[in-house]
Design goal:
7-stranded mixed β-sheet
Length: 522
């Protein structure tokens, strides 16, 4: 079973009026701080674990909290919900439930949205929702900690089982302490469940082949904390392997200690790190601010043409960081990618501080696909392309174009000879100038100029009109040496900033600054 959709939210913190649709395997909840990401998974925790809201959850304590949501299930899981499905004739693999708590001193009442039949809270809890906040956890959990918390029976039995079967829990958890911590907490949860229920089988899903699965939903809040980027990527893959029953060591532990063959799981992750994200935009839930309050976009609801979808999935690894941006500037290639941050710095703008991201297209062909994705996620996106692409994309208001034929020519027209020479000398591509200078300057020493171009004394008269003479050859050099580093150097040495890029940077920043800031205590 899995949480399919939050259809309606009333009076809960800052989430009133929002709708969420979820991937049935993994969901990454992203957005700025204080938008309500943690509120979402804490709301789910109260719906599926505590079955009660607190006074602080009510926007207005005089009004009830009402939440309508849909649970998805497979055919073999229908038995766990059979009483809840009574008279609903539900063969769609989903059940819509209304959850209402009239006031802070009461509990949640659950009803089948189709039949108004009351559903026992214990039935709802059988999704087994487990919430772990790395933010609120003071330290990692160990078996010794549990023993001190009156779990001696559990810890001693688990230690004995691990020793008897020569199982190293740290190795089972891929050598990642965070995964060890989560595994211990999952095992403790199942231990508590087994103690609570007279018959553990009543909450298991059994296949026709006799394989028993435990429905389980894991919610993690900022698991990236205290982990470097490589470890962040490793830990999320490690957790997913456990929840997808790909970790043979953990499966052996579940089977041997609890008689369970695996977990039938769903994962929710609140994160501020692109390193945690997998390479699938459909697993992203973005919470953002708008003029009308907090809003949300669920990637699982987005529908693109198949070729666009495949392109976005293949390339998502290269622009995951953009999902955390307030605005995006799309550029064609490496040179522009290196130049834009320098242009911004020269304008006195810190793109990181403004939350403005930069995405390299590797050519203009994918621009409409990227724009469609960012627009769908309500991230303001602006592209700047070479002017020779205007015939193909000139009708799009969010696409800007260079003033000259391409980026290199626009910058060339803004260089003085002296500044161009500094750039060419820095990348050691100035030797072609000797031919033209030799024609213009009597007694020109080509070897001396090549060895020390910036120290060589050039008559002002000779260089006054040379930019027009060398333009064709110089542009060939600029276009033949495109890369990120050279783009940054060109942006550093050019005398004047290109108006097209100034306009794009300014618009991206101003668009972000016009958005409402943080509000409330959430």
């Amino acid at each position: 079973m899995y949480i399919k959709k939050i259809v309606k939210i009333e009076n809960f913190r800052n989430l009133t009026g929002l709708v969420f649709t979820f991937d049935d395997e993994v969901n990454f909840i992203v957005g700025e701080s204080n938008t309500g990401k943690t509120n979402l998974i804490e709301m789910l925790n109260k719906l599926f674990f505590t079955a009660s809201f607190e006074k602080s959850d009510f926007c207005d304590p005089a009004r009830p909290i009402r939440i309508t949501y849909t649970i998805g299930y497979e055919a073999i899981e229908k038995g766990l919900l059979k009483n809840s499905l009574k008279e609903a004739n539900n063969d769609q693999g989903q059940l819509m439930i209304k959850a209402v708590q009239e006031g802070p001193d009461q509990d949640i009442v659950y009803t089948n949205a189709s039949t108004n039949q009351v559903i026992a809270a214990e039935k709802v809890k059988r999704l087994n929702y487990f919430y772990h906040s790395a933010v609120k956890s003071a330290k990692e959990l160990s078996l010794s900690d549990l023993e001190a918390q009156s779990y001696k029976g559990f810890t001693r039995g688990l230690r004995a089982y691990l020793e008897e079967n020569d199982i190293d829990l740290h190795k089972v958890c891929d050598g990642i302490q965070f995964t060890v911590n989560i595994c211990i907490k999952i095992l403790k949860y199942i231990y508590d469940l087994k103690r609570e229920l007279a018959n553990m089988e009543q909450c298991l899903v059994k296949t026709p082949e006799g394989i028993c699965y435990l429905p389980f939903i894991l919610a993690l809040d900022e698991p990236e904390i205290h982990n470097h980027p490589y470890r962040q990527r490793a830990l999320i893959k490690s957790i997913i392997r456990i929840m997808n029953n790909k970790n043979k060591g953990f499966l052996k532990l579940l089977k041997g200690y609890f008689g369970i063959d695996g977990l039938n799981g769903q994962i929710f992750v609140v994160t501020h790190s692109p390193n945690i994200l997998l390479n699938n935009y459909k697993q992203i839930v973005r919470v953002y601010r708008s003029a009308n309050g907090v809003k949300a976009v669920s990637g699982s609801r987005l529908r693109f043409a198949m070729d666009t979808h495949k392109h976005l999935v293949r390339s998502f690894i290269y622009f995951k960081e953009a999902m955390f941006s307030n605005a995006i500037i799309l550029v064609e290639g490496d040179t522009e990618f290196g130049a834009v941050p320098v242009f911004a710095r020269r304008l006195g703008i810190d793109l990181d501080k403004e939350g403005v991201g930069l995405v390299k297209l590797d050519g203009a062909d994918g621009v409409l696909r990227y724009l469609s994705l960012f627009n769908a996620f309500r991230i303001d996106a602006i592209a700047i392309l070479d002017r020779d692409k205007k015939s193909s994309y000139g009708d799009r208001k969010e696409i800007y174009f260079t003033r000259a034929r391409d980026f290199e020519e626009e910058l060339y027209d803004l260089f003085s000879f002296r500044q161009l020479l500094k750039y060419l000398a820095t990348i050691n591509r100035h030797s072609f100038l000797s031919y033209y200078l030799g024609m213009a300057i009597k007694g020109f020493n080509s070897d001396a100029f090549t060895d020390a171009p910036l120290e060589y004394k050039l008559p002002d008269q000779a260089t006054k009109n040379i930019m027009a003479i060398i333009k064709k050859a110089a542009l060939e050099e600029l276009r033949d040496n495109k890369n990120v580093i050279n783009g940054a150097l060109m942006a550093t040495y050019v005398d004047q900033l290109p108006k097209s890029f100034v306009e794009v940077i300014t618009r991206a920043v101003n668009k972000h600054r016009s958005q409402p800031g943080p509000g409330g205590d959430y």
